[in-house]
Amino acid sequence: MKRILLIFLSASVVISCSKGSKGSSGKPGLKGELIPRGSAKSFVAERPYGMVPIPGGSFVMGMADQDFASTPEKAMPKTVTVSSFFMDETEITNAEYRLFINAVRDSIARGLLAEAAGEGGGEEGGNGGSIGDYTYASKKTGEEATPYQKFLESQGGRDGYDESKKLDWKVPIHYNTSAYPDEKYAEVLESMYLPADKRINNERIIDWSKIKYNYQWEDVLSAVKDKNRGANYLKKESIAVYPDTTVWIKDFNYAYNEPLFDQYFWHNAYKEYPVVGVTWDQARAFCDFKTKMKTDYNNSLKKKKQKAMRFRLPTEAEWEYAAKGGIQNATYPWGGPYLLDDRGCYLANFKPKRGTYIEDEKKGNYTYTAPVKKFPKNGYGLYDMAGNVAEWTESPYNNSTYEFSSTLNPYLSNQAYREVKKTVRGGSWKDVGYLLMTGYRDWERKDSARSYIGFRTIQDIPAGAGKFARKTK
């Protein structure tokens, strides 16, 4: 009897503690029954801007319709199942990636200015007329620190993001020297630029090696394996995010590619072209930033939204499944085994025939990369899943992974982090047609940047989602 009473009391404690941290109070349940509060509406997954839903399903992964012997890229075909997810309809463009690096640049600039401003004396609604306007939002005149902020300050802050050091993003930053408000501001901002003795033709350029994105992620697999959770399983990353524009020279030592080196990433003529020169680590940093942007927006709403699912790189299985466009054993994303349509136009941007990069522009040939959405989309609404630029995946490159990985959402997260070789899919503008096949595998070192490798992101869709909402505007 005593044991039964102890079990009942323990259950009572669990029930009382399970109400969550959203300010709920009182006894749990309803009318003495354990009935969850709130309506039983089904969850609707909001489709992110520029992404399309990929319904889950099963398919034969690998070169099921081809059998080329002695190729290192070949692995035994295997039937696998993947869950539903959203995927970028195009590769990440230069314009999108520039938003990322500019946001990181601005964040660093605001942090430096806030530290230099100190107490500052700035006021809410300042327009950057003095460095004092850039002080931390919590220290501005008339803004009372919350009890939580006061607690953090009494404890000396915390490792990572400190709420007491929240930046005021409403104050504009001036990068034009003629708009500098005072000398202290000029001193801080100029520290972000290359010093005069390192400039070429005295051109004033940001020292992009200093523009690093800091984030952390948890090695869940190791934590579960050790039956433990804690800060020692957090992996802290500090990634220089500016793409390597020298790839246009390094990848082609005997070709004149200087115009692309000078202009491809930053010139507006290339804003809708896929970003290249991005390493695997930089692509993952972009995914984390994209997640943070959505999370911060959801938290800023008066009516809070469900926590945003994180954005990430697709696994190799997810990428191949999406590339097939819903067609089993699709040789290419458009389904058929041919590289031209019935009008004689190419269906992807690649190197046709024996190296003829430009045969007829009306047929869809481009010297290098092409703007996104210039070729037909596949059955799922995805563009350029073959050609243009090859794409990073989350998965490590190893033929044996086909043998021991799961048949349900195959994923090797722990090995993916440690393995230097990463799987690259899709073929590129410099490749022959064979490399564009949906089942073809290729690889690159994760710390390498190439003029022919880009990426696109995906976001998981919860299994309980009943339907998809219209994309956000």
Short précis:
With 473 residues, this protein is an alpha+beta fold. The chain has helices at 2-17, 94-117, 147-154, 183-190, 220-225, 247-250, 258-263, 280-300, 316-323, 401-404, 413-418; strands at 44-46, 51-54, 57-61, 78-82, 85-88, 212-218, 234-240, 311-312, 390-396, 421-425, 442-445, 453-454, 458-460, 467-469.
Describe the protein in words.
InterPro entries: CTDL_fold, Glid_motil-assoc_lipo_GldK, Sulfatase_Mod_Factor_Kinase, SUMF_dom, SUMF_sf. GO terms for molecular function: formylglycine-generating oxidase activity. This protein has 473 residues and is of the alpha+beta class. It has 2 domains: 55-93 and 243-466, paralog of FGE (formylglycine-generating enzyme) (Alpha-Beta Complex), CATH 3.90.1580.10; 103-192, no CATH class. It has 11 helices and 14 strands. The chain has a 4-stranded antiparallel β-sheet with strand order 2-5-13-8. A 4-stranded mixed β-sheet has the order 11-10-9-12. Strands 1-14 form a two-stranded parallel ribbon. α2 (94-117) crosses α4. Residues 1-21 have low confidence and may be disordered.
